[in-house]
């Protein structure tokens, strides 16, 4: 792709909007993931007593469902990004492609 085409794309209002929305969503989801993940690690480091609490009469501790919850949340955050990207970002990309082909 030549520099003129790149300049036209970067100046396109749809491209600017797309970048802003994508960066904002990515930032929010990343922040959520980091808070949850590092919160989990901090809990492991600083409150082992809490994580060693048994659930019911079995041998499972509370750490297992919390750890599974962290994994499930990461999958959900990925799914949220994919759903939003497929429903919203594609419209902007199509608009940008139309303008570049002109």
Essential attributes:
102 residues; 0% strand; transmembrane; Inner_membrane_assoc; membrane; mainly alpha; single chain
Structure, described:
There is one protein chain. The protein has 102 residues and is mostly helical. It has one domain (13-94). The protein has four helices and no strands. Helix 2 (13-46) packs antiparallel against helix 4. The longest helix is centred in the C-terminal third of the chain and has 39 residues, at 63-101. The radius of gyration is 21 Å and the shape is elongated. The chain crosses the membrane at residues 25-46, 58-84. Pfam families: DUF485. Keywords: Membrane, Transmembrane, Transmembrane helix.
Helix content: over 70%
**SSE class:** mainly alpha
**DSSP helix count?**
4
Global geometry:
elongated
Total domain units: 1
Question: Unreliable stretches, pLDDT < 50, 5 or more residues?
Answer: none
> How many beta strands in the DSSP annotation?
0
What is the string of SSEs from the N terminus onward? HHHH
Which percent band covers the strand fraction?
under 5%
Radius of gyration: 21 Å
For the biggest sheet, the summary is:
none
Mean pLDDT: 92
**How far apart lie the N and C ends?**
15 Å
Pfam family, one: DUF485
InterPro entries: DUF485, Inner_membrane_assoc
Keywords: Membrane, Transmembrane, Transmembrane helix
Transmembrane segments: 25-46, 58-84
List the helices and strands and how they pair.
Elements: H1 3-11, H2 13-46, H3 48-51, H4 63-101
Brief sketch in words of this structure:
With 102 residues, this protein is mainly α. It has helices at 3-11, 13-46, 48-51, 63-101.
């Amino acid at each position: 792709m030549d520099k003129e085409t790149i300049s036209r794309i970067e100046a396109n209002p749809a491209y600017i909007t797309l970048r802003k929305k994508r960066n904002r969503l990515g930032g929010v989801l990343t922040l959520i993931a980091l808070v949850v993940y590092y919160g989990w690690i901090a809990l492991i480091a600083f409150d082992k007593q809490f994580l060693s609490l048994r659930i019911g009469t079995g041998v499972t501790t509370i750490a297992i469902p919390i750890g599974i919850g962290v994994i499930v949340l990461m999958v959900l955050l990925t799914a949220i990004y994919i759903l939003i990207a497929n429903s919203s970002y594609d419209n902007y990309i199509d608009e940008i492609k139309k303008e570049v082909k002109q």
